[in-house]
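Appendix B, record 7
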Amino acid sequence: MFKHKNQRVGIFIDVQNMYHSAKNLYRANVDFGKILETAVAGRQLIRAIAYVIRSKSRDEKNFFDALTNQGFEVKMKDLQIFAGGEKKADWDVGIAIDMIKMAEMLDVVVLVSGDGDYLPVVEYIQNHGRLVEVIAFKETTSAKLIERADSFIDLSKNKKEFLIIRGYAKRSS
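Structure tokens (predicted):
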């Protein structure tokens, strides 16, 4: 896909999806700053939003602050815990609505998630004349989402660039 400096880009990161994918696949953390840089790719950044779940853990304030310091607008919602102990935490609908609302101001929508639930919103945005790029780990990304995206960046192909172990050292491929 052709990228040029005049394209207006919006980036929407499903932090929970990326966090769990990196933990399950590589026992590592995601370098969201590097993902932001890769997603922008020298183009005009209009908005970069990281959607997070607040669970009252000790380290999350530092993590949320780090996202803000890297240039993300951080949107939070609280982890829901139901009477039976079941937990629910996702931003799928909120992210989809934001993508639709902002698409008119953008040339390119970058979705950072592998969740196949986003397929209808990706199709909707494409049908309204916008490009949709997906960035995620291929092993945990819906094949239909990869196929439908105008471009797909597989973070697993460059693990040492996009992963952090123990918050400090980069993981080697």
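Remarks on this record: Residues 167-173 have pLDDT under 50 and may be disordered. The chain has one domain: 8-170.
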